[in-house]
Structures are given as C-alpha cells and as structure tokens.
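Fold this sequence, please.
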Amino acid sequence: MSTTAEVAQTLVTLCREDKFGVAVDTLYSQDIVSVEPENTPNHVMTGFEAVKQKEVYFNNSFDVHRADISDAVVNGNHFSVTMSMDVTQKDINQRYVMSEICVYEVKEGKIVREQFFY
C-alpha cells in the first residue's frame, strides 16, 4: 500500500508530465468525492465514473498551453498542491490563467476526496 507522500509525489509527477488522466485512472478510489467551489456546476461529484467524465469534459473544453504544479505539502492523510494553468476555453476562444489550491485525502493508498479552491 502506498503512503500519502508516495501518492502525492506520483500525482505531482504525472500532472507535470501532462498525464492527468493516468493520475485519475491509477490513484483515485472508486468512491472518490470531488468538490468544486459552490458557485460552479456539478459542485460535488461522487464516484470514479463521474470524476472521470469531469476530466473528459475538461479535456474537451480547454486547450492547456502550460501547467505549473507545485511540490506537495503532506500532512497526515492529506496533501495539497497549487496548480496554475494557461488555458484557452474552446467554446469562447478565450485564453486565461487558472490558479487553484488542490487538497486531497488519501485512504488505503488511494485518493478518496479532492477539493479545489480557486
């Protein structure tokens, strides 16, 4: 079983390699809960398939020109990273930088909860 620090390092490495889908496929629990800010559509999503569809939606909706992912800060069974992405939103052809703090909870070597602050 992987430790929280190992899961965190793997997530950071995969994201830095633009392998967000691989991170979801290999690190997320089947019972994952994903929480976005309250004012966003699909504020809370539960289950691997729902979170996988969110990742597919993002990939279909945005072109990522650059992504910067910080090292992880680990505390107990939680870790956080900051992400900054230079993206173009395809439907409106608008380019901007998205910055967020991502907080993850790990149990039995899998990410069981993620929450995003932006």
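Residues 4-117 form a domain with the Nuclear Transport Factor 2; Chain: A, fold (CATH 3.10.450.50). The first strand starts at residue 28 and ends at 35.
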